[in-house]
Structure formats: C-alpha cells, structure tokens
Amino acid sequence: xDQGCTVVxxxxxxxxxxxxxxxxxxxxxxxxxAKISRDPDEIKSADHxxxxxVGAAPFAMRKIRERGFISTLQSLKQPxxxxxxxxxxxxxxxxxxxxxxxxxxxxxxxxxxLDTKNQPAPHMGWNRLEWDERHPLLKDLSDNPYAYFVxxxxxxxxxxxxxxxxxxxxxxxxxHSNNVFGCQFHPERSSRTGSQILENFxxxx
Length: 205
Prior knowledge:
By secondary structure, this protein is α/β, with parallel strands linked by helices. 23% of the residues lie in helices and 32% in strands.
C-alpha cells in the first residue's frame, strides 16, 4: 500500500521527551504500528493517543504549549493514555522545583512530591501494583503484578485510581476517567505486565 494512503490509528504525541522510541518499540512488539507525531490533525484523527513523558514538568508543558497540543489533547474523545510524566500532565496542577505548573486539567487534582518516608528517592525500580476491583485495563494480569517506576512526584489515590503502589506513601499507579487513562510507571519497560496493559488500553473504544 502507498505510504501516503496509510491511515495511522495509533499516535504517540511527540513531546520531545526521551522515551518516545521505547514506547513505539513496545507497541511494535505487540504487532501495533504507531506513529510519533506533532501534527494536531493526526492526533485528533487517531483511534488511540499516547502521551509519554520523562523529565521536568515545566519543560514538558512548555513543549506541549509551543507545539499547539493543549487544546488538541483537551478536545480528544478517543482513548488517551499518559505515561509517567505524561500521566502527571493530565492533572490540573503539578508541583516541582518550588513552582507550580498548570497541567492539561483532564483529571482533577495536584501532583506533589512523593513522600518516600525512609525509602530511597526518587522511587526507582520494580514495585507491586495493588487494586480492589478488576478494571478493563487490568484484564488478564496476574494478581498484584510488578511494574517498573522512575519518578519523584505522584498523584494521590482518588476516585480515578484504578491501581495503586506504595513507596513510603501509597499513590495512584493507574488512573482512568472517561476517555483518559494514565500509568505512573513505564509499561514499555514493565515486561509482560506492561505489554498486557498496553494491549488492554488499545482495546478501549
């Protein structure tokens, strides 16, 4: 088929962060073709949209603003998944480095520094996912599987929480509200658990 006629139904938003290719490779292993794009029209027309992110919230939101993504992402009706910092950007506000950054406002609440108590900071490595009720995003997962985290900030447990994890303090590890999904961990680095969660996300309509 002519490349110019191919309809791309899965878009990874090009936020300029470092984990874009690793997310694309993880989807490729699932047999899913994803396009990394900074074109608002392509993003709007996709069946599923993934918003990755690593690094500092102020820088990430500045890139999103400069590339004209804010209104695009806020207007989406199709499933949207934020990964790591990408999940945090879905919230109303993010605290980082002594300043407050305005997020996309797709989820209520404020991202705050994770109180790790006597645990190492940042929270880095494998940790167990816990939940009370089985959500479609958790389909076919083993009970309390492990996922790979790298973060210093987190969302409190709320009505949007699908699964949580604990590192000093219990926090939201997976969230869902309407068409918006988020993983605080890196599914692309979380072995079979992460692959299954990505597959389950792509089953959402």
